[in-house]
Amino acid sequence: MRTGLFFVLCAFSAWCVHAQVSARVDTTTVPVNTPFLITVEVSGKDIQDPIMPDVDGLDIEKQPSQTSSRTEVSINVSGSQVLRIRELGYIAKATRTGRVQVPPIAVKVDGTTHSTKSILLNVVDEPKPKIPNPARGRTAPSAGVPHSATPQPDTELSWEDVAFITSTIDKPEVYQGEPVVLRLQLWRILLDGVSVGSVRGADLRYPDAEGFYASALEPEVRREERNGWPYEVSEYRQLLFPTSTGELTIGSWHWQGAARAYTRFGPQRHDYTLETVPITVNVLPLPQRPPEFSGAVGQFQFEAKMGRNDAVQGVPVSLDLKITGQGNPDAIGDPQVVKVDGAYVSDPEKETRVIGEGTVEKVITYAITPLEAGSMTVPEIAFCYFDPVSGTYETQKCGPFTVTVMASAESNRRVLVGDSVPAPEADVEVIGEDILPVLTDVPALRPHRSSVPANIAFGIIPVIVYGMLALWVQRKHRFEQDPAYAREYHALARGRQRFKAIERAPDPGEALFRTLVDFVADKFNVSNAGMTSADAGRLLESNGVDDSLIQTVVRILRACERARYASGSISPAEVRALTEAALPAMEKLNAFKRCSSKGGTP
Amino acid sequence: MSIWLCLVVAAATNPYQEAFERANAAYASRDYAAAINGYEQLIEESVTGPAVFFNLGNAYYRTGRLGAAIANYERALACDPGMECARENLDKCVLETERRLERPLPPDWEQSLLFWHYNLAPAATRMLAILFWLLFWLLLAIRKVRPVRYVLRAAFIVGVLAVAFAVSAWVKAHGDVYAVADAATVPVHYGTSDKETVRFELYEGDRVLVDRRASAWARVMTADGERGWAKEDALAFVGPPYERLDRPPADTGAEAKETP
Q1: Which one, of B244, B179, B185, lies nearest residue B213 by Cα?
Q2: What is the predicted ipTM?
Q3: Domain B1-96 part of CATH 2.40.40.20
Q4: Do residue B93 and residue A435 have CB atoms under 8 angstroms apart?
Q5: Which residues of chain A are under the pLDDT cut of 50?
Q6: Cβ neighbours of B43 in A, within 8 Å
Q7: Predicted TM-score (pTM) above 0.80
Q8: Residues of chain B with C-beta less than 8 angstroms from the C-beta of A465
Q9: What are the domain boundaries of chain B?
Q10: Surface of A (96-155) touching B: CB under 8 A
């Protein structure tokens, strides 16, 4: 009996340390399309990964997203045993509502396949987004997370939700001149750890609005909520007044900025280059315009006020016309020109200013100077504008005004300006006289010719003259500083000059000899003192002169030397023959030297 | 002697002088249309002296064409800024205009840099530019031949003066275009079409600056900065070039009012 009881206890304890497999979820009621975790816990010695089943209405990842393991030692009557316990978490997402059953999950432990119990899930609709409380901090945006159709505060944000821009107008169809409010909004999320800013230096640029007269309004910054998220909205507004009819387009608005966020992956940055869609406005033409239409389109109030009800003759009284309303201030024309009998009306002084949100005020002030004592009546003044709300022309009238004019205590003679008085009266002196007469005595008239050629000539000629002068000065300096150059340059001219005088010389042979020797010495910049025909020949040879030319020169010089040392004079015929031979030889030598100086082949 | 005689005879039979005197005679006999025609023909033949413009301005004034008269006085003053009689008549005509608008000012850069050139005639600035240009090169040449102290500095100063006068001459010849309203009222629109909204109106004699011209329309700017498009035929352009102004005066004001 005792032995039997022992075996039973052993068997029980052995069962107690037997492999165990279980599966669980945090809650059995899960929202559709919302990830939740299925945890499988397995204990045993040799544990393999569970095989996740395919379930209709449920997407379960095949690989665990979380794993953990621990080791336990079990001691019982049969001895001690070491057990390994693993927990594996699988992300699952229900794809439909209703009841969904997770079937038993098979796990192979210690060579034996074990199964968990099935789990019944109740899948419900997605919950409504909760309004996040920025004060408590929100989940930071995470890059790469797709933007769901209905953002949930409990889930993560996309970068597109962090900052975006919109461009809207208040009316898609307006009359010509009727104001259209263009709103450009920059939405930036207000969350702890998220900051959004414009690119440094990128000023606000309103979109192109060709065909509109634009007037900017004060920008606004406010807080708004959108899809459950808190935003700071910077709104820039423009009043646009279409100046032509038809379909006019307001271009895209561009914004560049960047957002920084501290996410679970650390600090992240996202750059934005956003643009809005262009907006088309249909502009209707104004209906048939009445003659008194001032050009103003909008809604206006017209007031007229006399400065005083009584006045003194000759002392001006002011008449203020005030137009207040919403419309293009530049298009507000003046009311009908005031004409007052018996008074001089000055040119109006105008002042236009913006007094509120798109509200302008134009004040036109006339100074009316009564010329006669008695009663002065300023007639009714009308202001006609087009009201786009009613689609009709409205005319507002003020007056007439009556002013009592007292006689002036001064003299009846008074000085007035301009043509305020129709005809000069006896007691009024009007400044002004006839224009000066035509000119008859004028200098001789002649057609005015184009001065362009002369201007060009005067512009270019001094430059050319200066250039020539500069070249001349440069050469002069070279002559002064470079005697070799000067000798060589002038050698031929000097030689020719001396040749002309050879025949008249007392000793033509000597003169010819000296001329030729001097020429050679000048050309090659050597001293001519004591130079003989042999010296000249060697000099020419050393400078690479052609042999035939050397022989010619040497022959002429020797002929001269013979006559010189043989005490016989050369006959005129010989002199002529030698001169005729010497001159071409000099020119050839000159050409040779010039070519050799330039580096060419003689 | 014979050359001198020829010159005297040629001067005595100067056809332009004769035409000018004929126009003056027509003016004296109050035949202003003939006088205008005579002066305009002289201008067409490039006889563009300030006296011709002045007399033409007077003739237009007599016929009631205030805008054309002002345009011609402006032309005369452009040719000779010191012509006091033209300035006086111009001032009188401006006093007779509806708004007595000032002449629009030149651009700021011109007022700052060329503040000194407004009293100089274009011919004078051109001559001075040429003179200083020649002098500049002469000084450079002197320095080249014989370096003298301060010649380079003098050449630099003279060169700067030459450039300044050349810029002045260029601005006077190709600078801003001015025009004068030559109809009782000239509507100024937002765009180049009669259908565009009228932004404001010019009265006869109002002087404007023309900064753009496109298909018979001119974009004008008044002295107080108002800007818009007006029809060219309702404006008398000061020039150059000098267009004939003896066309029938435009009545654009009435047309504009009738146009829906």
Answers
A1: B179
A2: 0.80
A3: no
A4: yes
A5: 1, 6-17, 128-154, 410-432, 602
A6: none
A7: no
A8: 137, 141
A9: 1-96, 109-174
A10: none
